[in-house]
Specification:
By secondary structure, the chain is an alpha+beta fold. It has 9 helices and 12 strands. Among the domains are: 67-166, Beta-Lactamase (2-Layer Sandwich), CATH 3.30.450; 234-311; 318-462, Heat Shock Protein 90, CATH 3.30.565. It is an enzyme of class 2 (transferase).
Amino acid sequence: MPGDERGRPHPKRSTSLALRLFFTSTVWSAIALAAAGVILVALYRQSVERSFDERLDVYLKTLVAGAVAGDGSNNTLREPGDLGDPRFGLPLSGWYWLVRSLKSGVVALSSPSLAGDAIAIPPRTEDGAFIRRGAITGPDGEALRYVERQITLADGSRYSVAVAGDAGEVARDVATFGSRVAMTLAVFGLGLVLTIALQVRVGLRPLERMRKALYAIRSGDATRLEGVFPREIAPVVEELNALIESNGEIVERARTHVGNLAHALKTPLSVILNEARSSDAPIAAKIVEQTEAMQSRLQEDLDRARVAAQRRIIGVATEIGPVTEGLARAMRKIHEAKGLTVSVHYPANARFRGERQDLDEMLGNLMDNACKWARRSVTVTCDLVAAPGDRRMLHFIVDDDGPGLLPAQRSAVLERGKRLDETVPGSGLGLAIVNDLARVYGGRISLAASPAGGLRADLTLPGV
């Protein structure tokens, strides 16, 4: 798995909680609205069909009342008229009535709208219902809904009386209603989506406040999470504050332990070193050499332990401006005899995520080394650059116009105690210390040729 500059694997990219909530709510809302639309249209279709059938029933009763003679004999049929609806008089209008003899199958009476044609009502069975309903195809190929019953005259003759209407009216009415329902639900759904987006935004606002509070702690503006949070995330806030306090206690114990260790070891070593230096014994020189090596190694390990402890302090940040300006003034004074021009450039409000003394030590060593070798000028530039994981890094560049170093020499000077020129004052620990401190902070240092003609030191450290 690919890693960052410290070899740690990058975390897997996670989906947005807000997008997940929004997507889930929107999908379920869309399903609910679609189901509601289908149910509404189905209920409306049932209502329209029932109303249509009730109209057919009224027409059927009117047809029976108008077709049977009113003289009391009930032995003859007569023209019933248009049943109160002029569409029964328009040819192929889609509205028809028919009276047919059940014995002979001959059409006794029919509406003018049939224009001499007939409608194919399914034949009755002996045990059939008194009133039948159904769907048939009309003479013009249109879909019809019909209602049919039988009547018996006084002479015993039986007739089938049927009324049929255009079923397309039902379909058109339902389609119109369905389109209106779809438009209404679409507008409602759009409003619901906006409401969901607002609800998700408002609901996740406490998490955004917590993120900003954590950033304030990371950048050194706060030491704990403050404020009132909802009950659902209040336990998380309490645990984070407890973790921060525990971190501080661990760091404090580590510092105390480091201090005690330094006091316990450095004092006996100093006594041994002083005794050996004052002795004339042949082995004294060897004791001095080994004791100094032990002191150097002890100091190196103590420095690393101290920085490692400080690196884990949450909420520590150092302003770049005061440190670089102060070091520039110090370098001008220390190397006043050379008449060097020491210039610094940095972004406003840039901060280093760490202790000031560590930044002083790293940047001071780089600037001091540059001033020792520079002929006329030293330039320090600082920039803020983006890093993976929503982090920012400080990019320091220290340029001088000295003789510079060969590529093979650049890696050698980063080793502790390595000096390429014994005539220049120093212990050879400066760049090695910078390298050690930078690595502890998760940064790095590299050396290259400077455009000014000398050496360029490139230092990367965590920023805020």
